[in-house]
Design brief:
By secondary structure, the chain is mainly beta. The chain is built from two helices and seven strands; from the N terminus they run αβββββββα. It has helices at about 1-10, 120-125; strands spanning about 30-35, 40-45, 55-60, 65-70, 85-95, 105-110, 110-120. About 10% of the residues are buried.
Length: about 130
């Protein structure tokens, strides 16, 4: 009987709340994609089911913070099983100090948040190619 119980619930432990109240699944939510271009850093976050008003974007001391809350559409008493993530989230992404904070831009469309952070001239000129020797 124990083996049957273990087999059924194997893998669910990663979705159970931790002592801090944040599940390990939610710790990496929303999923992000970061592009480091020549002139800008672009961060794209998938936040399906959210609206623009549900998300807050902050940039402070070279750290981009995405935070918000995804609310459930049904009451818990009606839900039998769910793999969806609900609740508060916060992602902190270090982007460095060499961005033009006053020119940062955030756009939200079709469940995708795109934050564009233009690099300063100093950051653009700091890239140095290092030759590889054999």
């Amino acid at each position: 009987m124990n083996r049957l119980f273990d087999d059924v619930f194997r893998g669910f432990d990663s979705r159970l709340p931790s002592f801090g109240g944040v599940s390990s699944l939610g710790a990496g939510w929303p999923s992000v994609e970061i592009s480091n271009g020549e002139k800008e850093i672009k961060v794209m976050a998938e936040v399906p089911g959210l609206e623009q008003k549900d998300i807050e974007v902050l940039l402070d001391d070279g750290v981009l913070t995405l935070r918000g809350e995804k609310r459930s559409e049904t009451e818990d008493k009606d839900r039998q099983f769910s793999e969806r993530y609900y609740g508060r989230f916060e992602r902190r992404i270090p982007v460095g100090y060499e961005v033009k904070e006053d020119e940062a831009d955030a756009r939200f469309k079709n469940g995708v948040l795109t934050v564009t952070l233009p690099k300063s001239e100093k950051a653009q000129s700091q890239v140095k190619r290092i030759d590889i020797k054999s």
